[in-house]
Here is the input.
Amino acid sequence: MKRTIQQLREEHGESRMQLADSLQVTLDDVSDWELGQAAPGLSNVRALAEHFEVAEYDLELHSPREETHPG
Here is the structure.
């Protein structure tokens, strides 16, 4: 079963800031990942999987939202 970064973070009782500090990324990075506004890079996917002790394929990662242009 895939789980989102937010689910895993909450299950571990961590704030977004605590997760950001643990992964040495910004709070904005974590927020963007959780909101689906950005996807973590490969090294961050590996770090997330290791941090939460799950397989990389167990992470449900949102791809960045595509911008829509009126036209």
